[in-house]
Each structure stands twice: as structure tokens, then as C-alpha cells.
Amino acid sequence: MAVSMKITAIPSSDRPREKILSSGPESLTDSELLALLLGFGIKGTNVLELSQTILTQFGGIKGLSNMDKATLSRIRGIGKGKGCLLLALGEICKRCASLYSPDSIDGTLRYLQSSIGASEAAYVLVINGKGRVMQSRLIGKGSSFHVELSVTEILRVAVSAGALRYVLVHFHTSGSPFPSSEDVKMTKSLMLSSDKVHITLLDHIILTSDGRFSFAENGML
């Protein structure tokens, strides 16, 4: 059975507080930054170990933005105080992500990218004549590996939003942004169906946590 090391047993120069003062915040790891905010650990687990456990469970700093009251129960020993702090930190992560130009396509993609969790999802971005995002509508949320994309439902959402031009965005939680054969087939069908109702599919973009694939940029629209 592993024995937890007390934080006081860690060399002073390696403790988060001393490290941030001597070398700056950029020198701290994600778990050290979180440890600094949490302040102290729980019974049997020092604050650095607790921070690493939380980040591992939630998929890193970015994963904290998907935290809610229900998911806090997954963290053993977390009390009300630390729970509130983690929820606040997750909300700060979301709000920082929204500081990217939220009405630009790239800004919206960055924001959506920051929200990628364990489940695949798809969105319709309604685009105006100046190329700005007027609306972002969730059209589907699936399993860890699949989200069902219906051409009929995508068009229904786009038309109901009054779109004349739109972008389809969906997540690949597998980590690979490259389209599957089903993605390619569905995109071709969607492009043809959009023309029939006199709206334009500008792009279909696949997002992963750290990458993206554009059908338009790759000459597939």
C-alpha cells in the first residue's frame, strides 16, 4: 500500500508556493497550480497528490470546465469548501475560453474546443453575410465514440434558425480529427440537400481537444 508523503517532506524549493515566488507561475505544472489554489490536501493524501488525482479523473485543466455538482462526488474526500472552489475554477475556465472573439468562426471553434469532454457532440453555427457567428446550436450529443448526425435534423435546425449560410461542427473524442467514411458520405449528402432548400453549407469542421479538420480547406466541399 502506497504511503502518502506529507507536503512538509517535499524539499522547500519544490513546493508550489516557494516555486511560484522564485521561478514564476509559468514554472509550475498543472497539478502544482491546482495545489496552490486548493491549499491543503485531505486525510491520507497531500495536496499535490490530490491535485494530480483530480486532473487525472477530469482529463486535465481543460476538463475542469465540464465539472458540475454531480461529478464532484467522484472525488473522494472533497468537502463543500474545495467543491465550491473547483466549481468556481471550472466556471472561470469557461469564461476565459469565451474571451476569444466569440462571434468569429475561429473564436467559436476555440470556445467549443475548450468544452470537449468525454462525449461526442455536434453544433450548427449560423453565419451572417459578414462571416460572423450569429448563433451556435447544439444539435446532438452522443456516446464516447459516436454522435448520430441526421441530414434532416441538421437542416431543420439551420432553417429554423433562419440560416442562409452555416457551418457544421462535430467533435471526435478519439483524438483524430480526420473524417471517417461516414463523415464524408454525410457531408456530401448534406451539401446537396442544403442546396435544395437554398441555404449554403460553408464548411464541416471536425474538432478534437487539440486539432481540427476543415472539409472546405481540404477541398472536400
Description:
- This protein is an alpha+beta fold and 221 residues long.
- The chain folds into two domains: 91 residues; 110 residues, Cytidine Deaminase, domain 2 (3-Layer(aba) Sandwich).
- Strands 2-1-3-4-5 form a five-stranded mixed β-sheet, sandwiched between helices.
- Helix 2 crosses helix 3.
- The termini are far apart.
- The model has no long low-confidence stretch (mean pLDDT 83).
Question: Care to give the gist of this entry?
Answer:
By secondary structure, this protein is an alpha+beta fold.
In the residues, how many domains can be counted? 2
* Order of the strands making up the biggest sheet: 2-1-3-4-5
How many beta-strand elements? 5
Largest sheet: 5 strands, mixed
**How far apart, in Å, are the first and last alpha carbons?**
57 Å
Helical proportion, percent range: 25-40%
Q: By helix and strand content, what is the structural category?
A: alpha+beta
As residue ranges, the low-confidence spans are none
The CATH class assignment of the largest domain is Alpha Beta
General shape? elongated
In percent, how much strand structure appears in the residues?
15-25%
CATH topology of the largest domain: Cytidine Deaminase, domain 2
Look at the structure and name the CATH superfamily of the largest domain.
Cytidine Deaminase, domain 2
